[in-house]
Write a structure and sequence with these properties.
Blueprint lengths: L1 H32 L6 H12 L8 H32 L6 H22 L10 H27 L1
Helix pairs in contact: 1-3, 1-5, 2-3, 3-4, 3-5, 4-5
């Protein structure tokens, strides 16, 4: 059992590193293309809060700032939790070749991020343009590559 716990902890650290890579890739895309930030994190927070009947307090600006912060935290939590899950799977004995592990992790991240938003009707991937898909796939590939490589290194020590 301790090897699984070690995998979860290493995976959480790897997921945090992968989330940093995802965020850096996203921000670089924003700089290069001059595009604005996505509103989907904030929209997700709004839908979640409404769904569980929780009011986010504050005047208009304070509340907007809290929603923005919660949206960012939701992304960090998703990436770290997914990494923990991948670490548990790896510690349980599942080993994929490095490229396959990175791609599987990237796909898992896309599903973990976009699945709930699709169910909540925050987004609909069927309507995305090629540029929208690129804005989503490339950062998730960065997440998968960094998370997988970091996890492999942490669990080989």
């Amino acid at each position: 059992m301790t090897h699984v716990l070690r995998g979860v902890l290493a995976g959480a650290a790897a997921g945090a590193a992968g989330t940093t890579a995802l965020n850096m890739t996203t921000y670089l895309d924003m700089v290069v293309r001059g595009r604005g930030a996505s509103s989907t994190p904030e929209d997700s927070v709004e839908r979640l809060a409404a769904g569980v009947h929780v009011t986010i307090p504050g005047d208009e600006q304070t509340r907007a700032n809290r929603v923005q912060g919660l949206g960012a935290l939701l992304g960090l939590l998703t990436g770290t939790a997914l990494g923990a899950g991948v670490g548990a799977v790896r510690a349980s004995g599942v080993r994929l070749p490095p490229v396959a592990a990175a791609l599987a992790t990237a796909l898992g991240a896309m599903v973990a991020a976009n699945g709930p938003m699709t169910v909540m009707k925050v987004t609909d991937p069927r309507t995305w343009s090629l540029a929208d898909w690129a804005s989503d796939v490339v950062p998730h590939l960065a997440y998968g590559a960094v998370t997988s490589a970091t996890l492999r290194r942490l669990l080989s020590v």
